[in-house]
């Protein structure tokens, strides 16, 4: 990968002097950007001796050296053969921007496979096809085939599945006075993908922030694990989101958990900053240009009272706390108040202080206060008639020097938003990053604050604990496959997880024996591989009080099943003790094709799919992550003891979620499982029903 971004020699296949020649645009980008390595041109279809001073060869085999990287922009049908020829001569790296592969399907899929096979045969690694490939601002490498103005050198590297979006990011970097380090447009990512580039940028000394625009994720688990190991902000914009929960599924988990829910959970768990707006790329870049905000305590300042009120709402909604710099600080402001008509507080309305020099002093006092983690300053530049005035002095004085000094000296962030129609001159002239609006400022600083908070929390160990009875669990799973219903509770028993006393009866005659040792009242549930959602087919009877009622319930359950599903197999009923009253919650898990096992938990019972008060976490789950996610659900208030009720055993529920997540992580044959309901008591917790799918 290092040679791909720092090649000493490049061969450009398809280059010609024709004005419409696309590879020539890439060549001119590199000449304009200042690339200093050797460049060769290859084109067997014309007789150019030179193109823009670059020597041309008719065949790749005629090159005087083996180039570090071969850039080949030729028709897709010719690419597999070119890869084969490059492999034979010893080339190990290629950039393939050509389109016409898997994005077209059919024959394009065949060409993609032929290209990949040839590369694998000779150990060639390549980026593309169907992308703009690579750029490195530091050394002038610029292979995109669209004319590109070189952005400032900076510390942000970009991975984009879309060439167009990548160019948009690059263009905005220049307009926002933000620098870029390296760029990878991966297109169809037939060989090298986002995980490969994330790993490289994570180790690259020139890269301090990693931006990713992705339309698909194929190695989601590896992406998350790589991001969690990298001590750099990783910012992901994922488009093309889909809802896999729309498919018919045997479990509640599959129907309520979508790709987007899982991606959110994976990003949060691994420390990835997920954004949903293109301009947040620039906003986050500005926020991370500032020192870290290590806590939520903020002071908001503005010369306009309305902007202060607006910022107060935005900050509170985003999780910030308003710092208290102390009464002595506010008293010092009153000495410089012009009319004495504004009561100073946080947010800080500076509209009664006309002296810009003292405003700079206020900023410095705020930034160096031990009670403050960071600050935000919002102002505006209205059109004013010519001539000097106190308002022009207040609203148009440059405070950037003092602000930047306060930022560097305190080691804290000061985010500044300037509301004006044309911000570009301000952005290009000063070091302090300027945000475009109060909303952008608060959102970006919230991303930054939460990232640094998450970095501390991720030190919490996530090692999968050994569940008691795992050998018995392994033996039980090895003997079963397919959809399983009530008998799944036996797996929990093998893991030493408390379950209700229960027994199965295949016929009315077996009822009395099955009831032995189970105190009345009991619950009776249908056992059928064709009726996993028991209540939907009338397969559940509660509060059965004696043997006669049990016999009647047995017949009723069998009749209900045949009425709802005449072809369904009836294996009898399972009888279980009635659990005491408590709160009914849900725990489910599924094995996602991209992201691996995830666990879902929250409100349970028959209405869970209606309210969807649920949280999703990757497996195995950290206890702290389970508790944090649970506390964000509406059902959490019930567990704490609403309207005078005694609080439920939250710790026991958190432990059970953790155990089930470890079960999913440890047994890949479990595809889906549901525990519904899981009854949480004042002391303890107990799953009352379970179903699962074993591969």
What does this structure look like?
The chain has 695 residues and is α/β, with parallel strands linked by helices. The strands form five sheets. It has a seven-stranded mixed sheet, with helices on both faces. It has a seven-stranded mixed sheet with strand order 9-8-11-10-12-13-14, with helices on both faces. Helix 3 runs parallel beside helix 4. The chain starts with a helix and ends with a strand. Helices cover 36% and strands 21% of the residues. The chain contains 25 helices and 31 strands. The radius of gyration is 32 Å and the shape is flat.
Low-confidence stretches: 244-250, 389-395
Helical region count?
Answer: 25
Major sheet strand order: 3-4-2-1-5-6-7
Largest sheet: 7 strands, mixed
Question: How many β-strand runs?
Answer: 31
Tell me which oligomeric state these chains represent: single chain
Q: What integer value in Å does the Rg equal?
A: 32 Å
- Principal-axes geometry comes out as flat
Report the average pLDDT across residues.
Answer: 89
Share in helix = 25-40%
Sheet/helix structural class: alpha/beta
Q: What is the first-to-last residue Cα distance?
A: 38 Å
- Beta content comes to 15-25%
Quick summary of this structure?
Helices cover 36% and strands 21% of the residues. Helix 6 (194-203) runs parallel beside helix 7 (220-229), helix 13 (356-367) packs parallel to helix 15 and helix 23 crosses helix 25 (650-666). Mean pLDDT is 89; it is low at 244-250 and 389-395.
């Amino acid at each position: 990968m290092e040679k791909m971004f720092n090649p000493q020699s490049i061969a450009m296949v398809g280059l010609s002097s024709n004005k419409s020649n696309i590879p020539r645009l890439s060549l001119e980008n590199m000449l304009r950007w200042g690339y200093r390595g050797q460049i060769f041109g290859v084109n067997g279809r014309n007789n150019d001796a030179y193109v823009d001073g670059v020597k041309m060869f008719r065949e790749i085999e005629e090159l005087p050296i083996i180039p570090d990287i071969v850039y080949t922009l030729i028709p897709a049908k010719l690419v597999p053969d070119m890869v084969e020829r490059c492999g034979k001569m010893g080339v190990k790296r290629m950039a393939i921007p050509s389109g016409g592969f898997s994005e077209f399907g059919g024959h394009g899929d065949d060409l993609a496979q032929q290209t990949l096979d040839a590369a694998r045969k000779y150990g060639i690694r390549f980026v593309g096809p169907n992308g703009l490939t690579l750029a490195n601002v530091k050394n002038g490498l610029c292979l995109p085939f669209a004319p590109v103005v070189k952005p400032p050198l900076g510390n942000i590297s970009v991975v984009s599945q879309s060439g167009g979006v990548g160019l948009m990011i690059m263009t905005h970097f220049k307009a926002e006075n933000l620098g870029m380090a390296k760029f990878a447009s991966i297109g169809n990512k037939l060989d090298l993908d986002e995980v490969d580039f994330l790993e490289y940028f994570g180790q690259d000394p020139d890269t301090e922030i990693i931006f990713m625009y992705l339309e698909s994720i194929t190695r989601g688990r590896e992406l998350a694990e790589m991001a969690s190991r990298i001590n750099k902000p990783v910012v992901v914009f994922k488009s093309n989101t889909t809802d896999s929960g729309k498919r018919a599924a045997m479990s509640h988990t599959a129907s309520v958990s979508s790709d987007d829910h899982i991606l959110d959970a994976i990003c949060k768990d691994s420390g990835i900053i997920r954004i949903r707006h293109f301009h947040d790329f620039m906003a986050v870049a500005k926020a991370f240009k500032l020192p870290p905000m290590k806590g939520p305590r903020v002071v908001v300042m503005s010369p306009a009272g309305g902007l202060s009120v607006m910022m107060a709402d935005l900050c509170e909604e985003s999780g910030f706390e308003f710092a208290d710099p102390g009464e002595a600080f506010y008293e010092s402001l009153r000495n410089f108040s012009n009319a004495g008509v504004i009561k100073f507080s946080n947010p800080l309305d500076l509209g009664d202080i006309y002296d810009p020099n003292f405003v700079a002093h206020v900023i410095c006092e705020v930034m160096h206060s031990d009670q403050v983690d960071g600050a935000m300053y919002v102002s505006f530049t209205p059109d004013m008639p010519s001539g000097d005035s106190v308002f022009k002095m207040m609203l148009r004085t440059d405070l950037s020097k003092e602000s930047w000094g306060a930022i560097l000296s305190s080691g804290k962030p000061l985010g500044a938003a300037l509301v004006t129609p044309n911000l570009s001159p301000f952005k290009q002239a000063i070091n302090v990053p300027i945000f475009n609006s109060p909303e952008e400022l608060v959102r970006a600083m919230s991303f930054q604050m939460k990232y640094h908070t998450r970095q501390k929390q991720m030190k919490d160990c996530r090692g999968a604990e050994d569940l008691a009875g795992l050998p018995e669990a392994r033996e039980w799973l090895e003997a079963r496959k397919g959809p399983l219903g009530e008998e799944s509770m036996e797996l929990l028993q093998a893991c030493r997880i408390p379950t209700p006393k229960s027994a199965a009866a295949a016929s009315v005659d077996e009822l009395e024996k099955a009831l032995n040792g189970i105190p009345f009242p009991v619950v009776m549930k249908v056992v059928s591989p064709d009726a996993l959602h028991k209540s939907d087919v009338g397969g559940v009877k509660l509060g059965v009080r004696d043997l006669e009622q049990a016999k009647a319930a047995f017949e009723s359950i069998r009749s209900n099943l045949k009425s709802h599903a005449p072809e369904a197999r009836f294996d009898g009923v399972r009888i279980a003790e009635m659990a005491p009253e408590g709160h009914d919650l849900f725990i489910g898990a599924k094995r996602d094709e991209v992201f691996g096992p995830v666990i879902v938990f929250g409100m349970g019972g028959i209405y869970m799919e209606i309210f969807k008060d649920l949280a999703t976490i990757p497996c195995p789950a950290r206890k702290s992550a389970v508790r944090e996610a649970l506390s964000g659900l509406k059902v959490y208030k019930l567990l704490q003891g609403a309207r005078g009720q005694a609080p439920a055993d939250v710790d026991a529920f958190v432990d059970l979620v953790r155990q089930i997540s470890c079960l999913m992580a440890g047994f890949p044959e479990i595809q889906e499982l549901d525990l519904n309901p899981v009854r949480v008591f004042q002391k303890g917790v107990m799953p009352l029903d379970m179903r699962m799918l074993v591969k």
